[in-house]
Amino acid sequence: MASIDFEHIDKIYPGGTQAIFDYTLAVADGELVAFVGPSGCGKSTLLRLLAGLETITRGTLRIDGQPVNALPPQRRNLAMVFQDYALYPHMTVRRNLEFPLKMRDLPEAEINRLVGWAAELLSLGGLLDRLPKQLSGGQRQRVAMGRALVRQPAVFLMDEPLSNLDARLRVQIRAEIGELLDRTGITTIYVTHDQAEAMTLGDRVAVMDHGRLQQVAPPRELYERPANMFVAGFIGNPPMNLLPARLVSTGAGGLRLQLGEQDVALAWSEPVERWRAWSDTALTVGIRPEHLRLTDAAEGVKATVVDAEYLGHETLLHARIDGMAAPAPVAVARLAGLRPFDKGQAVRLSVEADRLHLFGPDGLTLVNAAADAVA
Ligand code: ADP
């Protein structure tokens, strides 16, 4: 077991591409941190730096407090699990599991004990004599996990391990991996572009964009208190609605929030003072789809139905906010149950104002209504 410290890491590839900028993150012993971000953000680069497959340009990487910048991969006591399994096709499951142990010249009895332990943990008992081609995708993934596990590494590195599986299997294996990692307590870095996977597996989730760490937090905090507009828009499905807005001073000393020409009723508690600095500035308001409701009340925001997705248990209503400059943004509202809508239908949406987010011109979070109400 081990802690991992990334300290001000930069990575510049030969040729000059800088893939990682000043990356600092401390991973505790036994923690599972999911690295998530869009393709090309630098997730795999970080993993390869950690594994010792790429050199660090600047900064220090520590495993259990020891700098490892110059330590070769085989001396880092890490095990990697990739999406393509990399099982030996001509070897049975048992031989695949034994292989890394035989390479280490472990005694036969110890090899048998470790293979038995991994097979038990991963429910591979009945499959030990099969060849990889006689296994389903999910079973192959479990064998790949087993082969990493028998080495009893201090750290697991997983690079999109589920992306070759179909959606249903992915959810099942995701749950199995989560349980396995809980039980073994091995420090794990789990790389994925899938925010749902990161949110369900990670003790904490580290969100990256363009080679920079945007925010690292437990899943719930990331969802409820995104630090900036990128994280707000990346975490959650359907994504948070991000709409151009302004705070406008009212004569009575209060503030109104305007979407285009329309006022949004503000239910957040004072102090409004803190926000006054941003009045009459072009801002972005963030509203999660579940915090928009249909209303008959006159203060609802007027919108026009563009589309409705019927998902059975809920309906995702896509509606264009009326009276906004083209291209007028489409907001998505998540409504319970099956709701019929016609394209072009006029609707009114009410906003749960105590769940609003406001972002400044630089994309940083200015107001998190839920957090501010608690504070
Ligand atoms: P991700 O895993 O998030 O998709 P990567 O770490 O693979 O992102 O890539 C991050 C950036 O570094 C991208 O711009 C990519 O083109 C660049 N990159 C990755 N590997 C190399 C390499 N060997 N040489 C040069 N540039 C690279």
Secondary structure layout plus pairing:
Elements: E1 4-12, E2 18-27, E3 32-36, H1 43-51, E4 58-63, E5 66-67, E6 78-81, H2 93-103, H3 108-121, H4 137-149, E7 155-159, H5 167-184, E8 187-192, H6 195-201, E9 204-209, E10 212-217, H7 219-224, H8 229-234, E11 241-249, E12 255-259, E13 262-264, H9 273-276, E14 283-287, E15 292-294, E16 301-310, E17 314-321, E18 330-336, E19 346-351, E20 357-359, E21 365-368, H10 369-374
Adenosine-5'-diphosphate (ADP) binds at residues 13, 15, 17, 19, 37, 39-45.
How confident is the prediction overall: mean pLDDT? 90
The overall strand count is 21
Helix percent reads 25-40%
Report the sheet-strand fraction: 25-35%
What gyration radius follows from the Cα positions, in whole Å?
25 Å
Instruction: Specify the CATH class of the largest domain.
Output: Alpha Beta
**What is the domain tally?**
2
CATH superfamily name of the largest domain? Answer: P-loop containing nucleotide triphosphate hydrolases
First-last Cα distance: 37 Å
Strand order of the largest sheet: 6-7-8-3-9-10
CATH architecture level-2 label of the largest domain: 3-Layer(aba) Sandwich
**How can the largest sheet be summarized?**
6 strands, mixed
Shape: elongated
CATH names the topology of the largest domain as Rossmann fold
Structure classification: alpha+beta
Bound heterogens, unique: adenosine-5'-diphosphate
Q: What is the count of DSSP helices, taking H or I runs of 4+ residues? A: 10
